[in-house]
Design goal:
The chain is α/β, with parallel strands linked by helices and about 210 residues long. Helix content is about 60%, strand content about 15%. The protein folds into 2 domains: about 1-130, Rossmann fold (3-Layer(aba) Sandwich); about 165-210. Strand 4 (about 105-110) and strand 5 form a beta hairpin.
């Protein structure tokens, strides 16, 4: 039985994607199918996303979502794609997909980059991708923190504006409702605001009365 499994051709899932409806996946499919034939791989299934930007997440790319479900069910041994940008728009996206594949023992072949994680050089490249992805995350964090510090130094208020600053009329209506004896939940529901917001305004009103 083990010998028969070792002789079984690798089951490959081909994934293709184009960003606009004017483009076609035909060339990607043809070239990847030719690669599979040259390597003796068995094309088990084909997943497509047509007219969908690579910047969109997995939830908005049905072809990619279906591919990863097939990976989770161990229905394939390898995923083949035309290029890294067909899978995602960032190194972080690629690494997340690679980690999911690796967890299930599924390899990745990227035609344009010549990456095949079933080979020793491909596995080494995977390790390098992890290093660069961590570097990318660190750079993003650094830019975010620098932006926050700059905004703070310039006196810019960060985060969502409080209702007290954004909508004085609603605040007045909340106070009126509370003054008329309405409960917090009733006021929140009637004015379509959060219960926490009503409580904060109530507490602020009570503090002013105490003073």
């Amino acid at each position: 039985m083990t010998q028969q499994l070792s002789m079984r051709p690798r089951r490959v899932a081909i994934y293709v994607r184009v960003s606009t409806t004017e483009q076609t996946t035909r060339n990607q499919r043809r070239e990847l199918q030719a690669v599979a034939e040259r390597h003796g791989w068995e094309v088990a299934t084909l997943f497509e996303d047509e007219g969908i930007s690579g910047a969109k997440g997995r939830d908005h790319r049905p072809g990619l979502a279906a591919l990863m479900k097939a990976v989770a069910r161990r229905e394939v041994d390898m995923v083949a794609a035309w290029s890294v940008d067909r899978l995602g728009r960032s190194l972080t996206d690629l690494l997340a997909i690679l980690q999911d594949l690796r967890a299930k023992g599924v390899d990745l072949y990227l035609h344009q980059q010549g990456l095949d994680t079933s080979t020793p050089s491909g596995r080494a490249m995977f390790q390098m991708l992890g290093v660069f992805a961590e570097f990318e995350r660190a750079m993003i964090r650094e830019r975010v923190m620098a932006g926050l510090e700059r905004a703070k130094a310039e006196g810019i208020t960060l985060g969502r504006r409080r209702l007290e600053d954004a909508d004085p009329k609603t605040v007045k209506a909340i106070r009126a409702g509370l003054a008329n004896g309405q409960g917090v939940k009733a006021v929140a529901k009637g004015l379509r605001v959060g219960v926490g917001t009503v409580i904060r305004i109530r507490d602020g009103l009570e503090k002013r009365i105490v003073r």
